[in-house]
Amino acid sequence: MKSLLLIAVVALLLLSCSPKPKVGGLESDNWRYYYDLGMSSFYAKNYSDAISKLYKASLLAPSEPKVWNALGLTYMEVKEYEKAEKAFKKALEVSPSFTEAKMNLGILKIASKNLKEASDYLNQALADESFDKKHIAYFYLAKIHKELGNTRDYLRNLEKATAYNPMFIEAQMELGNAYIELKEYDKAEKLYNSLLSNNISLPEVYLNLSRIYYEKGQFENAKAMIKLVLENKMTTNIQRSQAYDLLSKILIKEQESLALSKIPEVKRDTRKKEEEKAVEKAPEHEDKKVKKEEAKKEPEGKYAIQIAAFSSENRAKKLIENLKSKGLEGVRILDVKGIYKVVYGTFDSRKLAKEELERLKGLEIYGFIVEVK
Q: pTM above the 0.85 mark?
């Protein structure tokens, strides 16, 4: 009896020490280990290593749909579209109800410009009420409609994407840009303010709000948003440049509005023109000629052409360098209470300044006439 017991114990020890079954030289119960390593490399954007690890996981667990799905996503990142499609279809082959693979096939078909199949796969994913990534499917369905020129469906699907997940920032930003392009400024303003109320204080949010306020003529609000863009540590150089360009436009608009508000001067100019016409129609007696010459005289003062205005002197200097490279000399900076105006030339009459302004337009240089001391 004791000998039989001893034999059983030895047999168990031998079984426990025997090598685990292998697949392609890999231990079959280690697929999760390779899957986790592969996903870590995927998120670190080391796609070569991710493919290596996920491929090993697929050998060990060929019936796991999430392994094939992850492998397909990685192949998409390196533009191996045929391999990606095979991986997604393999995921559906082993698990027809694996909806995420259907959505990813739809996204893949967008990349290969097969919009009909893309739409079919995305709609199949959306038909699954248990699917927890519908916001992504709606977002890519919106992209298909944008490509097809279906503006209404493009907006509708973007709105669906943001409704299903209000924190889906990529969809929110695209929807906001779409509203701005369609001049639906009130909707765009509401969207961006909603993001700010949820602590999504990205530079792009402030920059787009400043554009909206500029278009609505709310210049003080626009400048306040620009200030927040410039103060934000996440602001890129491109965004900073866009903010300064918009600020320049705002300052020019404000000056134009100020000039138009000087109604008495406009009335004097109108009366002056009427007097000139009366002199021209009168007989050319000597005394009349004198009056005619007097009527042609410009009001006292000099004129210049303002091209831009900045809150930064360095930005103004850079513009001057650019204008000089186009052969424009006589450009200078006027510092007016911390606003650096870039002005060109000094003209004795508004007429001369206007003629030069027309010439500058041919050089794609734009501005407006201002009086200078």
A: no
